[in-house]
Design a protein that fits this description.
CATH topology of the largest domain: Rossmann fold
Mean pLDDT: 84
Helix content: 55-70%
CATH architecture of the largest domain: 3-Layer(aba) Sandwich
Radius of gyration: 25 Å
Distance between the termini: 18 Å
Order of helices and strands: HHEHEHEHEHEHEHHEHHHHHHHHHHHH
Number of strands: 7
Oligomer: single chain
Number of helices: 21
Number of domains: 4
CATH superfamily of the largest domain: P-loop containing nucleotide triphosphate hydrolases
Structural class: alpha/beta
Bound molecules: adenosine-5'-diphosphate, magnesium ion
CATH class of the largest domain: Alpha Beta
Largest sheet: 5 strands, parallel
Strand order of the largest sheet: 2-3-4-1-5
């Protein structure tokens, strides 16, 4: 089970910081007990990964309430809204457990839709007999105003670095994991208060070599902050004036190192018409390839920065003189093939559906929290990935999609019958 789900707080006391929000939420729920709630809904807001969803879940559990949870982005269909309305309007009989409704991530509501949109939710709130908590990253979006007006608005704070470290330490202890203090601080610093990304980083670092050091953390985070389309990154690499630009560009996409290599490989000839420059660029690329090979074999992640240096700056500065040049970028043949046959979207959807059932959480949460992290693991640590695939009961198709260029390796472990042997 992914750690962000495994280590969700089970009790309000495990929710770090956020005392004001805890207090406010508990008091508001108490007002329902006394029969006269001021407002029938709460809008709980704060930056991503500060604990909005966790807080509501923990409060429900601590007070012994039954939680009905729905992601607002999953409320598009008529059946979903009707079900929500029905649950909300039911009184709990004398003996039944009290209920609280969580409508998660209402920022995702469609401003224009009548169905599953703000208007439909307002109607549910008007008729509800049970407390409704909504969450949002940004409650001040224009289209949320009507919800804001009818709700008690409760703010949660961005978590501090020390809060993040506290939670990471707790996880390290529970996992009996050797974690350097410096590494945890680095993760916390990079997370900017987002515990979700911090916990994912911790798990990814642990998956790489079984302990968490500053080096692994640095290696992992070169894979983060992917923003550019491949051709944008490619243009940045080839036209960079400084080493750092080429270096940044190389890790700024969604591509695995292997795919990036293919992209660069195919564009060297169109970028360099001078044969000697082209030769030097190919030379740098093949050096990068050797480093990647060695990393895979030895799991020595220190080599990663050399590999990336060869692939980015090494290729970019193969030129002798810089002249601004326009090159039309095209999708490499091999990748085009993969993209077409993979039907990425459908696989992502199928995987989200499968995991949502297994992990008892929403599809939206799986897509934003779990799948990106699985993709890192599946393209970098085949053996570990195969273990995850077995544990989740994934199909070969899904494994193939997740692992992309490393599908063969993951599948070879995946298909091996489980044997009792020394682990690691
Ligand atoms: N204040 C907190 N205390 C303990 N764990 C937290 C806290 N905030 C977030 N987490 C952890 O981070 C992950 C994401 O939290 P979540 O509640 O889903 O964030 P949000 O809903 O605000 O985006 C969860 O796994 C949770 O365990
Ligand atoms: Mg949430």
């Amino acid at each position: 089970m992914p750690w962000i789900i495994k280590y969700r707080p089970k009790h309000v006391d495990e929710v770090v910081n956020q005392d004001k929000a805890k207090q406010a939420l508990l008091e508001w729920l108490k007002s329902w007990d006394q029969g006269a709630p001021g407002k029938k809904s709460v809008l709980l807001h704060g930056p991503p990964g500060c604990g909005k969803t966790s807080l509501v879940e923990a409060v429900a559990r601590t007070l012994g309430y039954e939680l009905f949870e729905m992601n607002a982005s999953d409320s598009r269909r008529k059946e979903d809204i009707e079900r929500l309305a029905k649950v909300a309007s039911q009184t709990s009989g004398l003996r039944a457990r009290r209920k609280v409704i969580l409508l998660d991530e209402v920022d995702g509501l469609d401003p224009r839709a009548d169905l599953g949109g703000v208007e439909a939710i307002l109607e549910v709130i008007r008729n509800t007999r049970n407390p409704i908590v909504m969450t949002a990253n940004n409650p001040y979006r224009e289209h949320l105003k009507p919800l804001r007006d009818v709700s008690e608005v409760i703010a949660m704070d961005r978590l501090r670095e020390t809060d993040v470290v506290t939670v990471l330490k707790r996880i390290c202890q529970a996992e009996k994991l050797q974690c350097d203090q410096e590494a945890l601080k680095e993760i916390a610093k990079r997370s900017e208060g987002d515990l979700r990304s911090a916990i994912n980083d911790l798990e990814a670092a642990a998956a790489f070599d079984g302990r968490v050091t500053l080096e692994t953390v640095k290696a992992i985070s070169t894979y983060r902050n992917r923003v550019y389309a491949p051709w944008e990154a490619l243009r940045k690499i080839f036209s960079s004036k400084y080493v750092f630009q080429a270096r940044e560009a190389i890790t700024s996409t969604d591509l695995t190192p292997d795919e990036m290599k293919t992209w660069i490989n195919e564009h060297i000839p169109s970028w360099y018409d001078n044969p000697e420059e082209a030769w030097r660029a190919y030379e740098a690329l093949s050096r990068a390839d050797q480093y990647f090979g060695r990393i895979v074999k030895t799991q020595n992640w220190d080599l990663l920065s050399y590999a990336l240096d060869m692939m980015g700056p090494g290729v970019a500065f193969a030129r002798k003189t810089y002249k601004g040049k326009f090159v039309a970028f095209k999708m490499p043949e091999r990748i085009k093939l993969l993209a077409e046959t993979r039907k990425s979207r459908e696989y992502r959807e199928a995987l989200a559906e499968h995991l949502a059932k297994r992990l008892l959480t929403s599809k939206a949460a799986i897509k934003s929290d779990v799948i990106p992290y699985l993709r890192i693991i599946f393209t970098s640590n085949p053996k570990y990935a195969a273990g995850i695939a077995k544990a989740y009961g994934l199909t070969e198709e899904l494994v193939t999609w997740l692992a992309g260029p490393r599908a063969k390796e993951v599948l070879s472990y995946f298909k091996k019958p489980a044997r009792k042997s020394k682990s690691t």
